[in-house]
Automatic annotation (TrEMBL):
This is Sensor-like histidine kinase SenX3. Signal peptide: none annotated. The lineage of its organism: Bacteria, Bacillati, Actinomycetota, Actinomycetes, Micrococcales. It is found in: Cell membrane. It catalyses: ATP + protein L-histidine = ADP + protein N-phospho-L-histidine. It comes from the Bacteria. Keywords: ATP-binding, Cell membrane, Kinase, Membrane, Nucleotide-binding, Phosphoprotein, Transferase, Transmembrane, Transmembrane helix, Two-component regulatory system. GO terms for molecular function: ATP binding; phosphoprotein phosphatase activity; phosphorelay sensor kinase activity. It comes from Isoptericola dokdonensis DS-3. The chain holds residues 120 to 389 of 428 of the full protein. GO terms for cellular component: plasma membrane. Its main location: membrane. Its EC number is 2.7.13.3.
Amino acid sequence: SGTVLLQVRVAPLGLDKLLVLAEDRTEARRVEAIRRDFVVNVSHELKTPVGAIALLAETVQDAADDPVAVRRFTERMLAESQRLSALVHEIIELSRLQVAGALQAVRPVPVRDVVDEAVDRARTTAAGKNITITIGGSVDSVVFGDHNLLVTAVRNLLDNAVSYSGPNTRVGVGVHERGGLVEIDVVDQGIGISTEEQQRVFERFYRVDPARSRDTGGTGLGLSIVKHVAADHGGDVRVWSEPGKGSTFTLRIPAADLPVHDRSASSSES
Ligand code: ADP
């Protein structure tokens, strides 16, 4: 009956309009399916830490007169609730990106500021594993967009680089401008990703090794957030990787085409 309704509605329209309407319906169905998938995944992912916390709480009640056990189980409860909180934060972030689509306030953003802030925040975790983060490349690239979202994207790539690398390794961030695109490379010497997995790591909740990802506090949402931020800025994100050697994630955003006098003004100041 849906088809009949469609025919009746489009009868007075031309063939081109009919095709547009049909496409709209396919697109609407696709979006609806993605949304439904997301809700199912979210419920599943939330149930795991919530269930773990409940179980740990019961265990603590049973072990109330054993202070060592109480300490151990409450520490695990704390870890699980931190994971839960990170997960909720990322789900909200991703839903906002999915719903809003377009950026709210777009302004010229110096890429170096984004990289500096993201690296600053990642340094503490990196220091714990004695991983050095270095910054290289051209310094004066500018893109149009949202500073905070771009920091989140670079930060997610850096957090992964640190999480999936061994101690005493190096992580490099490079900024280059090529063919009108600003490329931000995050290079690590970590465990790497096989060719088959490379296709999938940008999917929501996808993890190569769920157990390891859980240990590192991973949610499986980091790279899909990066993908959305890139797309919202008219760019993309790619990966090169060799298992056992390391990975390079490249975020590419169109360079801001600032008027020539702006560029010379900013470079003569420095
Ligand atoms: P997570 O929160 O699990 O890190 P992400 O979406 O950020 O989720 O990444 C998805 C998966 O991709 C990770 O679970 C991990 O298996 C793999 N991955 C991401 N970045 C790297 C990297 N730099 N090196 C190796 N594997 C990575």
